[in-house]
Design a protein that fits this description.
Layout: H1 6-23, H2 29-45, H3 50-77, H4 86-89, E1 94-100, E2 108-112, E3 115-121, E4 130-137, E5 140-145
Parallel strand pairs: 3-5
Antiparallel strand pairs: 1-2, 1-4, 2-3, 4-5
Helix pairs in contact: 1-2, 2-3
């Protein structure tokens, strides 16, 4: 009976790591799969001992893990950093226009920042009133009517 090629064994081991990563996502097994495929690539070019194969596997897995994990994780899982959220960056006082009357303790709607938001207020505010955004909690803004004093 013919023996199985070490290149094929390392390649299939890499496939097993990739499939296991899909089943048990932790984003570590992916790099073991990369290490197995690097070892298979080296074996396809030259013949080395089992000890050298294990060293190649360990070094390539660790190097890719250290260098690429945080970068690839942000690509595949997304970056949830609030500093990059455009809705959270605006620290200047903002104004909006009431599109649906606000009658406390109920909610109304305000057009603010190019979007429509659910809004609450401490006092009733009729439609088409210009309001100042005091606070934003998740998808609800707390507003106050913006009173402009006119001089005659």
């Amino acid at each position: 009976m013919e023996s199985v090629s070490p290149v094929l064994i390392w390649f299939l081991l890499g496939v097993v790591f990739f499939v296991t990563e899909l089943i048990l996502p932790g984003f570590i097994l992916f790099f073991l799969g990369v290490g197995a495929w690097c070892t298979a690539s080296v074996l396809a070019l030259t013949s080395v001992s089992l000890t050298v194969q294990m060293i190649i596997f360990l070094i390539s897995s660790l190097v890719t893990l250290i260098l690429l994990r945080s970068w690839l994780r942000s690509i595949f899982l997304g970056d949830s950093s609030e500093e990059n959220d455009s809705a959270n960056v605006d620290t200047a006082p903002s104004i909006g226009i009431v599109t649906e009357a606000i009658a406390p303790p109920g909610q109304g709607r305000v057009k603010y920042g190019g979007s429509f938001w659910k809004a609450t207020a401490d006092e009733p505010i009729p439609e088409n009133t210009v309001v100042q955004i005091l606070e934003r909690k998740n998808l609800i803004v707390h507003v106050h009517p913006l009173h402009t004093e006119e001089t005659v």
